[in-house]
Known about the structure:
Elements: H1 3-28, H2 39-49, E1 56-60, E2 67-69, E3 74-78, H3 79-83, H4 87-105, H5 108-136, H6 142-179, H7 185-226
Parallel strand pairs: 1-3
Antiparallel strand pairs: 2-3
Helix pairs in contact: 1-7, 2-4, 4-6, 4-7, 5-6, 6-7
Amino acid sequence: MGIWGFFIILSIISYIVSIIFQNKFRKYSQLAMPYGMSGAEISRSMLADYGIRDVKITVAQGFLTDHYNPATKTIALSNNNYYGRSIAAAAVAAHETGHAVQHHSGYFWVRVRSGLVPLVQIGSQFGSWLLLLGMFMLNVSPTILLLGIAGYSLTVIFSLVTLPVEIDASRRALHWLNQTGLLQGQDYIIARDALRWAAMTYVVAALTSLAVLIYYILIFLGASRDE
């Protein structure tokens, strides 16, 4: 199987994982939270338990646009999860709050990812153009492609570092939800399933970016041997 066949398989897997995750989220959004708490209330309660008082909780527009911004110390929950009182809303809200807890506690991989942000911004801005230019000028100056590879590799590293950050945020969320008794038994299993499929989307994205990097490295090595 050639590299393009590998890309096609990864694209299919990515699409399937995305569809499964969205379907599971919609299904679990119909299951009521046992104690009737909204996502926003879940976040506030979890922050209070960890003694975090400087993080804001806001509404984000769109579907599954939930995120935590460490620069502004803001947890943004999509409308359905901010106001929603479902198991899915509780899981997502606790997960995003888990990121706030990571930031507050100085979690190692969060510090690494934060340090990579300015480098990734530069790499993503120039890397794609250098890759494109490098492919056109491959027979003239392979060095341009090498510079593009170096820039793009920062994006790949960022994707790989994101994996432990996302997995740990889910671990913290599930631990807190279970420890507080908010989600137990089958409800806990459902929340864990939703977060596992969410994590799978990051895994597939990281593998895809890594495959693209390997593809360009192989092209560069082939051009270097031909010189």
